[in-house]
């Protein structure tokens, strides 16, 4: 480590610091508030698959990385147990799989907006009823909105989703994750240095730290 530190100092210390703040594009609000965005698009896939994707453009969520509200919502939407969206759609023989979330990449999350998408893999019968499938998804999101978040939250009488449980699962996955390639790890840390506070460089992209229902 001493040798590596010496090399880094020799190689990079001559790079000038211009003292400029990190650029922000927060003033460019609502980039998707256009007629083109509020539409249904049909795309012919390369392989034989039916997929329905619903996308929302939300205010920037980068600053809430310690809360991870979109991660919390994606757990609720992606739940597969009794009372879930997918469970209902499977009983109708309309869907095979469902996924919701934010990729936390530059396109899906930045200082201008955050994207939240829900994708449903449809059966042939589900494709015929994709309007009804979309309606069910919106109904479920509306229910979540009305109930509001909670540390201990029960939906549809049997769907028991715990914020604390999500926090523990993410912590376990972090502590017992497989060792990654050193180059990839360093690259990831360098990206985290642009996004998180110093004390969260190692954990900011994976752990849930704070429960804030208002967020």
UniProtKB/TrEMBL annotation:
Xref: Gene3D superfamilies: Metalloenzyme, LuxS/M16 peptidase-like (3.30.830.10)
Family: Belongs to the peptidase M16 family.
Source species of the chain: Neopipo cinnamomea
Gene: Nrdc_0
Protein name stated in the entry: NRDC protein
Limits of the Peptidase M16 middle/third domain: 174-214
One Pfam short name: Peptidase_M16_M
Molecular-function GO terms, alphabetical: metal ion binding; metallopeptidase activity
Xref: InterPro entries: Metalloenz_LuxS/M16, Peptidase_M16, Peptidase_M16_C, Peptidase_M16_M
The keyword Hydrolase belongs to this UniProt entry's keyword annotation: yes
Peptidase M16 C-terminal domain mapped to chain residues: 2-153
Protein's GO biological process: proteolysis
Keywords linked to the UniProt accession: Hydrolase, Metal-binding, Metalloprotease, Protease, Zinc
Superkingdom, natural source: Eukaryota
């Amino acid at each position: 480590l001493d040798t590596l530190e010496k090399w880094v100092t020799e190689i990079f210390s001559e790079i000038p610091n211009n003292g400029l703040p990190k650029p922000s594009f927060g003033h460019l609000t609502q980039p998707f508030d256009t007629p083109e965005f509020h539409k249904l698009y049909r795309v012919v896939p390369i392989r034989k698959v039916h997929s329905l994707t619903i996308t929302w453009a939300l205010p920037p969520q980068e600053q809430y990385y310690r809360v991870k509200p979109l991660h919390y919502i994606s757990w609720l939407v992606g739940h597969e147990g009794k009372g879930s969206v997918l469970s209902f759609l499977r009983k109708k023989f309309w869907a095979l799989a469902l996924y919701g979330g934010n990729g936390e990449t530059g396109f899906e999350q930045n200082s201008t907006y955050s994207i939240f998408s829900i994708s449903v893999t449809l059966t042939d019968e589900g494709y015929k009823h994709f309007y009804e499938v979309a309606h069910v998804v919106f109904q479920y999101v509306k229910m979540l909105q009305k109930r509001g978040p909670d540390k201990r939250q029960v939906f549809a009488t049997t769907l028991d989703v715990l914020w604390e449980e999500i926090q523990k699962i993410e912590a376990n996955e972090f502590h017992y994750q497989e060792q990654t390639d050193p180059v990839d790890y360093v690259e990831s840390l360098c990206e985290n240095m642009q996004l998180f506070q110093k004390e969260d460089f190692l954990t900011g992209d994976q752990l849930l730290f704070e429960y804030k229902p208002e967020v």
